[in-house]
Structures are given as structure tokens and as C-alpha cells.
Amino acid sequence: MTSVSEIPDIVIGRLPLYLRALNQLVSQGQTITSSHELGQQLGISSAQIRKDLSHFGEFGKQGTGYQINHLMAQLKQILQVNREWSMVVVGAGDLGRALAHYGGFVERGFRVVGVFDNDPSKIGTGSGDLKVRNINDMNDFVRERAIKIAMLAVPGKVAQAICDSLVDGGVRAILNYAPITLSVPENVHVQYIDPVMHLQRMTYYLD
Amino acid sequence: MTSVSEIPDIVIGRLPLYLRALNQLVSQGQTITSSHELGQQLGISSAQIRKDLSHFGEFGKQGTGYQINHLMAQLKQILQVNREWSMVVVGAGDLGRALAHYGGFVERGFRVVGVFDNDPSKIGTGSGDLKVRNINDMNDFVRERAIKIAMLAVPGKVAQAICDSLVDGGVRAILNYAPITLSVPENVHVQYIDPVMHLQRMTYYLD
Question: Number of residue pairs across A and B with CB atoms under 8 Å?
Fold first, then answer.
């Protein structure tokens, strides 16, 4: 088992894929799987899967496969998703509202606890944790509640300023839906969700 | 210049990143850039960028950098986004509606021309191309209009069946927002957008 700092980011990036595939197998009633089966489902070689998992210790025995529940528990622990994370959504447009109401977060360990916008016609709409708050209160909100994760669903031209304020308030992980590249300090992680980039990656292959 | 089939998919996957970064530089008024500058913006080594671009020919001269407009035009041609692609959105929930109304598609070469759902209370709502159609008409619609791209914003339990129908109708590229892994023939490309997977990839690094 190597120390955490030696594990390549690209390996970390595949662990959520494995977790999702295992989840799917469980929902089909399966209790045991193999690197071969996982590989076929994901389009990744079984050797790669075994190598990735070997960074974190021994998960399966040659010939007997993986106990799915055990492997999932281990992956959740490694990824630190064996707990619940609070998040804020910034931007209460179509996409922000879709994110705020997305049913898939809570069951996988994430909970939206605040939604922010600068549009007076949106502030105050919604209810409970999903009532839209004034963006001027965002920095204090994340600081006081020690919130580490934000989802950014705002126009590109304001995204960097909002990002800076979130980081100043202590946010360390940003899921960015705005179509720009954000500048952040080294200890802040950004993941980009830009549907056009995914589409562009596929059109290359179309006739 | 190597032939298309030899270019690794991982290189293709970085080209949209380059295109977006170049777009951002242009919007800041810049006309020339360097692999060094691009690399700093994207967190990719300048050597990697030069190597990626060298698959497609000569784009820059040593010491003079890249003409941004020329490089962008070439990347668009390579990715086949120097034209407009028609797409359908399947699922007219919060997310499907956000996708159908997303302003960032048309300016980057993608246009939603049909939205489908199976919910009678949604069918017929909306207007123009974005009027929600009956999902029973989806297969004919994509076939008759030779639509190659679909975005899937439906619950996981119906995603595979809808995917099969889209593929049967001639769709060859699917942007999947449903939280399951789709099975498709080899000539069909799938990209996954699952915010939880991106979040899980970042929680690994949080204290």
C-alpha cells in the first residue's frame, strides 16, 4: 500500500467509475465480481483495474473475485464519501435549480444546504435549504458552516469573481458548470462540467 | 501528420480543452499564444500540448507562438465542429429543460431540435423546437432527420431502453446524464456527465 501522495490523480479519477459500476451490479442483485467483468462493463482492461486497486491494498483473491460490498466500502473510505458532505449551489437559473433539486446527491453522500443568486426576482423563492439566498451572504455562509464544496452554475463572466469569494470563504472543491477555466490556488480542486466539450469529443468520430 | 485512426482517444479528449482555452484568450483580446501559456492555463505541460498538436500537423513556429484564430479553425475542423449539429434531448425534467434552454450550445455549433418525454403532463408544453414531444415518436424523429447526437436526461432505470431506441434510430453519440453505464455497439460513442463522480474525485483530496 503506497502513501496517498504517490497515487496518480488519473487513478483517483477512475475510482468513482468503479464505485458506480459496482453500485449497478449490486442493484442487479450481484454480490461478487471480477476485474474482468468490471473491465468489460467500463471499457477498461482488467489489468488496469487490478493495478489501480493494488495502490490501496489487497481487495480480491486470485480466482475468487471481489466481494462487491467490501470493495465498495473500501472505495468509499478512500474517496472519503463514507460520510455526508454539505454543498452550496451558486446560480439559481435552470441549471442551478436542476442541481439543487437533483435527487441523486443525497443517496451518494452529498447534500445541497444553500443556493445563491444575485437576481432579486429569484432571491427568496424556493423553500427550506433550497430557498434562494442573496449572493452577498455566500462568503459568510460557507465560512460559518465550514462548507468545502460548491457547484458553480453562473454565467462565465462572473464565475471567476464568485470562485474567488468561495475560496476566500474556505471552499476547497468546485464543480464548475460555467464555460471558463478558473484560476485557483494549489490547494483548491476544480472539476469542469461543460457538455459542449463532451459533445466535441464525440463529433470527431462521427461520419 | 498521422492518419486519424492512430490518434489516441485521450489526445482527442484534450482538443476541446485547448479550444475552450483559446476561445477564452480571444475573448480577452489576444491573437497569439504559446504552448507555455496554454499549458499554464490548463495545468498541462507545454511539451504535452506541442506533442498533441503535432499529431495534426504544424501549427506554430518555434519562438513565434500560435496564431490563435488559425489554431482554433484547425481544431474545429479536426473535431468536426466547424458546422452545426442537430441534437435531441430526452427527458423534460429540471435537467432536460435546463439542457434544452442552455444558451451555450448554438454559439458552439450544437442545436437542440427536439425534446422528448413520456409524461403526458409534460408532452406539448414549451414552444417551437423545444415543444416537448411524445417519446413514442422519438425513434422515427431521429431516423427521419438523420440526427446523430442525443442528450439523455432520464432516470437510470429507463436509460438503457431509450439508448437502444436512439441507436436503432441512427444516433451515434450520446451524452448521458443518467447515473448508469450504457451498453452500446462499438460504433456508438457515449460520454458520461455524472456530477457525483466529479465530486467524489475531489473529496479524496479534502481534509
Answer: 168
